[in-house]
């Protein structure tokens, strides 16, 4: 029977610079046991640096990282497999370091690698003989096989095709539910964040900082595609997310319609002018003011299942 753990990872007032480049500033958050937290933000905003600090792979310069979990496993953004070891031995690496006997570690590593969609024949291959997606599954297996209390993942699914992603999402959620792991996961994919996480931290760049936290109130196991699409769309509409990713503000449909109408009238005028010069003015009046619906993003109703909190206040709604 699972006992409920009260362990948590607490990050407080974290700041970091590489030489004179301030990369992170004023980072506060926590990850509790049994919780999946996604970290999203534009490329170069400091997500990997933050994860490395959380994992103790970089020395903390300012602020505090308090990891109360008994064991932590890390999956790097690049698979970082040992080139002289087979896929199976790469998966089993941490088990070897933990002193587990060869037969037992191979048994566990093989079972997990097969669950992650690798074939028996792949397990005897060396990293250079594996595709990018296979390498990232080996790297994920290497972290999961340790059954850690805290799992830190840096874009674990980015090299995988859509079918495999779905399968691995389920597997990660099963592992997480079975063991009550805490998971902190970087992703570029907002839909992935909405599908998997209990909370989403949105980072903005220069310096990297958390501008918004979203909490998703429906358990991941009960989210269907429609729920995920709707809430991803909501997330994409929020001003903080758009600003962070350098997207232009959402244009409200009525305003867009009016603007399009005005543009249509303006173009009409130009066409009519041209037509008058050509001596043929039939084309034109029919299109004036008849705006087409905007293509691309659609404005959806304010968040309901999605609760946004910023410094204790709602944001992004
Ligand atoms: N070891 C390092 N030395 C100097 N600068 C670094 C180092 N590691 C990262 N940086 C810089 O810190 C900034 C943040 O890098 P980081 O890898 O954390 O970004 P990221 O958000 O993970 O980006 P991506 O989404 O592209 O992976 C970048 O400007 C990067 O050049
Ligand atoms: Mg990164």
From TrEMBL:
Top-level division of the source organism's lineage: Bacteria
Domain ABC transporter: 9-230
Assigned keywords, A-Z: ATP-binding, Cell membrane, Membrane, Nucleotide-binding, Transport
Pfam family, one: ABC_tran
Record field: compositional bias (Low complexity): 271-280
Spans annotated as Disordered: 254-289
Entry keyword annotation includes Transport: yes
UniProt record similarity statement: Belongs to the ABC transporter superfamily.
MF term (GO), any: ATP binding
InterPro entries linked to this entry: AAA+_ATPase, ABC_transporter-like_ATP-bd, ABC_transporter-like_CS, ABC_transporter_ATP-bind, P-loop_NTPase
Annotated protein name in UniProt: ABC transporter
């Amino acid at each position: 029977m699972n006992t409920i753990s009260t362990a948590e990872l607490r990050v407080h007032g974290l700041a970091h610079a590489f030489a004179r480049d301030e990369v992170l500033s004023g980072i506060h958050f926590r990850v509790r046991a049994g919780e999946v937290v996604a970290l999203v933000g534009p490329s170069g905003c400091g997500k990997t640096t933050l994860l490395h600090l959380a994992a103790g792979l970089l020395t903390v310069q300012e602020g505090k990282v308090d990891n109360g979990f008994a064991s932590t496993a890390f999956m790097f953004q690049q698979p970082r497999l040992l080139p002289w070891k087979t896929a199976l031995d790469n998966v089993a690496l941490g088990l070897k370091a933990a002193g587990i006997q060869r037969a037992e570690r191979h048994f566990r590593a093989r079972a997990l690698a097969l669950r992650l969609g690798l074939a028996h024949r792949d397990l005897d291959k060396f990293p250079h003989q594996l595709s990018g997606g296979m390498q990232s599954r080996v790297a994920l297996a290497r972290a999961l096989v340790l059954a850690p209390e805290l799992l830190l993942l840096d874009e674990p699914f980015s090299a995988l095709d859509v079918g495999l992603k779905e399968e691995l999402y389920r597997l990660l959620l099963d592992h997480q539910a079975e063991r009550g792991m805490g998971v902190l996961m970087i992703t570029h994919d907002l839909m992935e964040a909405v599908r998997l996480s209990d909370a989403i931290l949105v980072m903005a760049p220069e310096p990297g900082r958390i501008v918004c936290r979203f909490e998703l109130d429906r358990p991941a196991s009960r989210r269907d595609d429609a729920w995920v699409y709707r809430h991803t769309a909501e997330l994409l509409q929020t001003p903080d997310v758009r600003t962070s990713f350098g997207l232009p503000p959402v244009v409200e449909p009525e305003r867009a319609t009016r603007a399009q109408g005005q543009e249509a009238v303006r173009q009409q005028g130009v066409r009519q002018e041209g037509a008058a010069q050509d001596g043929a003015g039939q084309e034109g009046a029919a299109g004036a003011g008849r705006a087409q619906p905007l293509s691309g993003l659609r404005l959806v109703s304010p968040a309901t299942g999605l609760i946004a909190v910023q410094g204790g206040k709602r944001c992004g709604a």
